[in-house]
Amino acid sequence: MVVYAGQGDPRRSIELLWRASVAEKRSGPKPGLSVDAIVDAAIAVADEHGMAFSMRAVGERLGRTAMALYTYVPGKNELVDLMYDRAMAELPTSYELDDGWRAAVTRWATDMWEFYGRHPWVLQVSQARPVLGPHEFAVIEALAAILVPTGLPGRELRGIVGAVNYFVRGAAQTVAEARAAGGATGEADEEWWYARSAVLLEIEPDLAKKFPMLHLLENDREPIDPELPYLENDAVENFRGGLKVLLDGVEGAVAKP
C-alpha cells in the first residue's frame, strides 16, 4: 500500500506542519484536545495497524468521535503528513564528528534503520511527494551536516546524501514487508520457504549447477542472528555490508586529490 503525502489543502497542511496560525480550539465536554494529541494517537494506531486506519480509530483512541478531530485537522490526508513529520522528530538533529564523518554517517544510518523498525508504516509514504515538514528537513540536514565537512563538491554530496538515504530506506523496506507477510498472507515465513524450496529442488535438482554464482553466495554465509527469519537475516547482512561498501566509495571520493 503506497500512500502519497501532500494531498490535503496546501496552505492548511503547511500551516499545521510548521504550526503557523494554528488556534488550539476547545470544544466539547473534554477539554485539552490538540493537534499534537491527535497526531500522537494516530501514530500509535499506525504502529499497531499500519496505514489502513481511519479517523474514527484515532478518535476512539482519544475517547472522541471522528467529527471532533476535524476541528483540529481537516482530514486524513493532512493527518498523514503530520504523522510522518512528527514521527521523524524522534531522530537526532546533529551528530558528533569526533570519530570522523564515517562513524557519524554509520550512526545516522543505524538510527534511521531502527526508526523504520519502530514505525514501518512510514515506509508506505512515498518519497515521490515529500511532506515538506520541519522534521523531515532536519533528518536530511543532519546527514548533510556530517558530509559537508568532507570538502566534496555540492553536486557530488547531493548524490551521496540521496544514495545513503535511499539505501537505508530500501533495506528497511525488506524487513518491514517480511514481518508483515505472515499476517497478510496467513502463511508463516518458515512454511512458505520450506514448501516452495522443497518443490523447487524436486523439479529442478540441478539448480546449483545452473546458477553456480548464486549457489556460491548462498553457501558462503552464516546467519547474523539465528533467531531471525531468513529474509530479515538477509536484509540485516545487506544493510551492514552494503553500507560499508557505500562508505568505502565515499571515502575514496574524499581521498581523491
TrEMBL record:
Residues 32-91 form the HTH tetR-type domain. Coiled coil: none annotated. This is TetR/AcrR family transcriptional regulator C-terminal domain-containing protein. Keywords: DNA-binding, Transcription, Transcription regulation. Residues 54-73 bind DNA. InterPro entries: Homeodomain-like_sf, HTH-type_TetR-like_transc_reg, HTH_TetR, Repressor_TetR_C, Tet_transcr_reg_TetR-rel_C_sf. Signal peptide: none annotated. Pfam families: TetR_C_1, TetR_N.
